[in-house]
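Purpose: get a first structural picture of the assembly so the mutagenesis plan has something to point at.
Setup: two entries, given in the order below. No constraints added.
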Amino acid sequence: MRKLKFREVFVSRDGFAGAKITFNKTVFCIDVLNTQNCDYALYTHLHPRHFPGYDNVDTSRVVSPSIGFFRVKPGDAISIGNVKIITVDAYNISETGKEPAHPKGFGVGYIMKFDNAIVYHMGDTDFIPEILNLKTPIHILFIPIGCENVLCPEEALEVVKSLRPSITIPIHYVDKGFLHTFRYIAQPYTQVVVL
Amino acid sequence: MAKDVLEEIYSSEEVVPPLMKWKYITVKEYEAIYRSSIADVALFWGEEAKKLVWTKPWSKVVDGQPPNARWFVGGEINAYYNIVEKHRDSWIWGKPAIIWENELGDVEVATYEDLHNLVSRLAGALKSFGVKAGDWIAIYASPTIESLAVMLAAIKIGAPFEAIFTGFGFYEVAKRIASRKPKVFVVSDGFYRRGKVVDTLSVARKALDYSNHRCTTIVIEKTGSTRLRENEISFDNVKNLGKDSEGFTAPSNHPLFGLHVAYEDDFKPITHGVGGYLVQTFSTSKWIGLRPHDTYFCTVWPGWITGITYVVFGPLMIGSTIVLYDGSFDYPSADRWWDIIERYAVTLFLTTGSALRILSRAGNQYVKIHNMDTLKAVLVTAEPLETSVWWWTYRVVGTGSSPAITSIPEKLTGRIPVINMYIQSELATFVTGNLINYTFTPITPGSVGKPIPGFSIDVVDDYGKSVRDLIGELVLRSPWPSTPIEAPQDFWSRWVEGFYRTGDYALMTRNHTVFVLGRKDCVLKVSGYRLSPGAVENVVREVLKKNVLVVGAPDKTRFEVPIVIASESMDKEIVKKIVREYLGPIMEPADVRIEIFDEKSPRGYVRRRFKEMLWNIAVQAKG
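Result (C-alpha cells, whole complex):
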C-alpha cells in the first residue's frame, strides 16, 4: 500500500473510505475495517463500508459518535497523546424532504492536529455550511467524491476551493469517472494525490 | 549521416492540436515577434530581466564582444529569493513544491514552506562546515527532496554546485571532484533500480579516494543504515547544525552551478553565472507552459542541463509543483510513468525522445489503462525525434479519454501538443520550440520548432553562410544571457566570425522550422545523453594500456551507441566491464571491433572516418 509522508505524519488509504495516519509510531485509523494494526480506530459513522461491526472492534480504543470509549459529537475536541482531534459535522442535505442516508448528528468528520500537520477526513457528507466556517488550515484532506450520499465531484471542488488544502486525497468512489472529473477540475486549487 | 537522420524526422506537415486551436499564432505573427526580439537582443533580455527582483540594478545589459560578453553588468541579485523565497507571502507557500516517489512507492511531499525551512537549515549547516560564497559543493545523489534542497542551500549561500549524474562510475565522479575541489560532497547511500539497490556511496567513496581530495561528505540515507566513515556525516544529523536566514546577494556573473560537458576528447567543466542564467531560465520556463498551478513531471535528472534548468530552477521560480520520480520507467511495468501522471494529475510532462521511442515499442496497452486527461502538453528534449514516434506520442499519449475542443478519443485524433525542443549545456535553456505561453505556431512533427525569441538562431554552411532547406550547422549569431562564465577552449574555439557553432547538424526551412540531425563532430548522443568518446578512450588507455578509438554507431532505440575500435585483439567483455565500472553503464560500448587505423593521424579526423563508415554500413543494412 502506498504511503505518503507529509512533515511528521504518514498517511495511506485503507479500503473504500478508510485512512491510516501514523504519527510517532501511533497508528490512527479512520473508517478502516481491519483494525489489526491500528492503535486507535476512529469511525465517522457506523455504516457497513466504514465500520466492521461491533464484534470486530476493541471499544476501549474507539472514537465514534455512537460507540466506544471516546463518544464524540460535532464541536468536540479530544486529545490522544499529542494529537488533538476535533469533531466536525458530516451529513446530507435532504432536497426532497425524505430522510437522508446521513442525517445531521448521525455522523461526523475528524480534523486531526499533529505537531505541524493537520489532516481532515470528511466522513460521509454533502457540501454543508459548517465546512465554510472552518477556520483551521488543512494540509491533507480525505474527501468523498462518489456522489452516492456524499459529495459529487463538482461539490467536492467547492469544498476544495473553500478549504484550499495542500494535498487532497479522493476517497469513497467506485466509478473512476468521478475520480477523473474531480481530479481534472480540482487540480488547479489543490494537489490531488490518488493513493 | 545527417541526411539519413533527416529521412526519419523530416516532415512538412503542420499540426494544430485541438487544445491549441484558439491559441496558436501564424508564421507571420511569429516572425514579427521573433525579428523584433533579435534585432536588439540586449533590449529584449533587458526587459525580461526586469521580471526578476534585483538587489541592485545593472548598469549595462551586455558588455563586451562574444564569447566574452558579460550580461547585466553591475547588477546584483539574490538568486535564492528569486527561486523560492519570493513565494513566501503568496498562496504558493503552502502548496507542494516537490512530490517525491521512489520505486517502492514511498511518497513524500514538501510544500514551498517545508522546502524553505529545510534549505535554511542546510544552508546553516554548510556554513558550519566552513563553506563560503564561491566554494564549490558537489552532489552525487538521485533526485530527492534532500538532494534538491542541498542544491538550493548552496545557492542560498552563494556556493556554486555541480550535480553529478548517478549513472556515472567512480572515474567520472573523481574527475569532477578533482576539477571542482568541493568543500562539501553530498551523496546518497543508494537508490532502487528495477528492484535492486544501486550503491552510490561506495562509488562516491572510491571516487574521493581516487581523486585524493579531502572534504566533508554528507550522506543522504535512503536505502538503509550505513556505517559512516571519518569525514562522513548523516544528512539527518546535518539538518540541525544551524540556520541561515539571509540569502546571498551576488554580482550578476557570480558562479551559480556547473556541469562537465562532453567534448570529443573528454568531459570538461563549464559554469553558468547567476544573473543571465536566471533571466533566461525564468522566461523560458514561463514560455514552455509552466504556471503556478501546474503539476510538472520531468524525467530528466539534475546532472544534465534539462534536469538542472527545468527541475531545480525553472518550476520553482514559477511556483509549480514538481513530481520527482526516483526509479526506473519500466518497473514494475512499462506503465510506471503513465501511472505517475495519472495519480498526481500531472499537467506538463517533459521527457526524452529515447524514452518515448522505447515506450512506443512497449505497446499502447500500457498507456490506455491510464487516464491522463490532466496533461496539457508533452515536451521532448535531447535528441532528434522521428515523426513516427512524434505521431505515436501525439495520438496515443496525447489524445486522452475525454473529448476536448475538436478531439475524438476513439479516433486517436490527438488533443494536446507534443513539442520537441533544442537545448545544449552551453546554452543553458531551450532555444527552439513551440511555446505554449508565447509563440505557438502549428507544430511540424520531427522538428524542434522555431527559434525562441531572444535567441538568434541560424543554420549555416561550412563557410558561415545562412542556408535554408539544406543541411548545415546550427549556430547562434548573438550571445545569450547565460553564455558560460567558465568554459574550456573547445567552447571558445566554437565562436567563429562572431557566432557560436553548436556542433549539431540541422536544417532550417524557409519559415524557420528547425530539424536537428545529430552531432557534426564525434561527440556521442546516447539515449539523449551527450557523452565524450575521448573519456572512454582515456580509460581504456589508462587501465588496459591500449590505444583505441570510440565512435558512435546509429541505434534504433538510443540514437547512437558507443563502439570501441581497436587495432589489435581485445576481450570485449573486459572492455565493457571496465567502462561500466569506471565510467558508468551509460557509457558501456555496444561492441568492440578490430580495425587497423593510423595512430599518427589526428584522432578527430580518424574518428570522423570511422563514424561515417559505421553510419554508411547501417544505411546499407537498412537497404
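The mean pLDDT of chain B is 95.
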